[in-house]
Amino acid sequence: MRMIQSCEIRWFLASAPEAVLIWFERRGQHFSKEEQAGRCDFYLVSEAVRNDLGIKLREGNLEIKERTTEFGAHTFSASAEGRVEAWRKWSFKLAHTREGGTDEVLHITRQDVQNSAWVPVGKDRLQVILEMAEESRVLLSGAPAFSLDEGCGVELTKIRLPDRVCYSFALEAFSRTGHEYQNLKRAVDTMTAEIPGLELSLTESMGYPEFLNNIAKP
């Protein structure tokens, strides 16, 4: 079992902001032209699941993510506003089946996924890690997040749902000293300075549980 704490802000968008795509391309990252997503996670969506609790199956792991704090709406620039939240995530390794993964848990889902509470979410993700260095410096890091003490992941994800394609733009800060909120603020300040005029609305800002619960409503 593994536990991770984060402070993050996320937006769900009908299309990828051009300025964000350019920012990632300048750092050597772009979406593949192939239509198949890089991975597929399965999220539990039902009336019993709350907006502050996410449960998903991912690459042989069961992940439970709970929102611990709502910091409320924050305005980052004249055209960017979103909700800042703190989350705690537990990850449990599932027993491997002969097929090697989550198939045993998903055998009903795979038979009739449209009528299942487990919703398949295909993802193709671009990600850059910002390291929070000394003297208030924010550095682009080539190291994986788990090897850093203080930092923030910046990600743009192409999401494939059973009935639509959309995008998620998010900043997810981490810290070994309990400074997740401060690291997120430094990362947001860096991004708004590097992408001036980026338009992100408060109505598009929410966590994965709320987003999936909203689209699951009849």
Characteristics of this structure?
single chain, about 220 residues, alpha+beta, eight-stranded antiparallel β-barrel, 4 helices, 9 strands, globular
Task: Spell out the helices and strands N to C.
Answer: EHEEEEHEEEEHH
Beta-strand content estimate: 35-45%
Task: Estimate the mean pLDDT confidence.
Answer: 86
Helix content: 10-25%
Q: Would you write up a description of this structure?
A:
The protein contains four helices and nine strands. Strands 1-5-4-3-2-6-8-9 form an eight-stranded antiparallel β-barrel. A hairpin with a 5-residue loop joins β6 and β7. The chain has helices spanning 18-25, 107-111, 180-194, 208-216; strands spanning 2-13, 39-44, 53-58, 61-77, 80-93, 118-132, 138-141, 150-161, 164-175. The radius of gyration is 17 Å and the shape is globular. The protein has 218 residues and is α+β, with helices and mostly antiparallel strands.
Layout of secondary structure:
Blueprint: E1 2-13, H1 18-25, E2 39-44, E3 53-58, E4 61-77, E5 80-93, H2 107-111, E6 118-132, E7 138-141, E8 150-161, E9 164-175, H3 180-194, H4 208-216
Antiparallel strand pairs: 1-5, 1-9, 2-3, 2-6, 3-4, 4-5, 6-7, 6-8, 8-9
